User: Fold this.
Amino acid sequence: MSLTVLMNAGPWLSVPPPGYGGIENVIATLVPELRRLGVRVVLASVGTSTLPVEERLSVFDDGQFANLQRPYNQVCGVAQAHLNGVVRTLRERSDIDLVHDHVEAVGLATLAAMGPDGPPALHTLHWDLAKHPALYGHLDGGGRVRVNGVSASQLARAPRALREHSVGHVHLATPLAVDADRVPQPQKGDHAVILGRINPGKGQDVGARLAQRVGFPLVLAGPVGPYHRPEDLAAAGDEARQNPDARFFLDEVAPHVDGDRVRWVGTVAGAERDDLVASARVALFPLRWEEPGGTAVVEALALGTPVVATARGCLPELIEHGRTGLLTTDEEELGELVLAASVLEPAECRQVAASRFTPAVMAREYVQLYERVRQLATAPPVPAAA
Assistant:
């Protein structure tokens, strides 16, 4: 395939990221498979990115994620500076066939504002589409800029103008799904695990309360705001309450965390994360929001761990109820389902992940979207109805 794609990862974290980094991990999963298909990749990220690509473009030497904690008037130029560098590159070069953008809001707005002289662009929507109504509700990509979702349910909730720019959805993938059905399975323990950034939408307080009431061990794994370890949060003292996620944890989750039945272990990564999830009886998702993508869901399946979850957002698309997990609309039922999930077979979860959620599957689907976006960008405009 002769195709050069500028992959815009943004200025916040390196690719791959050091630990947590949802979008950057998606890009790190996608790009190697695109290159195996013959796609040339120009990565727009930060200077510390190490992902092998044909070329790199960076405005900042290192990730700017820590600046997101600063007041808006001090940080509002970071993403714009990065996008300015991207636009300069696009204007100077004629060999970029398509831009695949992942930068929330400002990436989409900037690419659309380039007008007809810009290359075709695909903007992947990784987040809650109830955000940015003034942008999404009046989007005009000029026939050149299109969007895709990470689930059908995400796009179904999108404003009409955004849906009219959509070329479909591509489910997220994980490298763990490669040969997942042939990797030895560790012995299962009794614990459930909730993996992810701790905040009200993820519902860790619900899980902790149910673990205490029903009587199953629960491990909470993920950062609390900027605090990646329990000792970091403890050392911050009252200052931590300036962060909304830290306030949520301290007020709603911590009262249920006793270090025995319910534990918070902070951020885990690599083999430690995989062992924690693979040895769990279930991965629990007591969601309070419409989860758009569910990276942690497909990772759990690839590691042979059934999912117990609130049936919100993308979960009904990813989970086969009664085969790879158990879903409910009643959060009070989740605790009982954690115990009932022992009848589900880990091998079934791994087989499904190996067929549906590999990087190769995701890359092939994105290549199809790239071709669709390019065709639409070069198609003559449809005459307006009389």
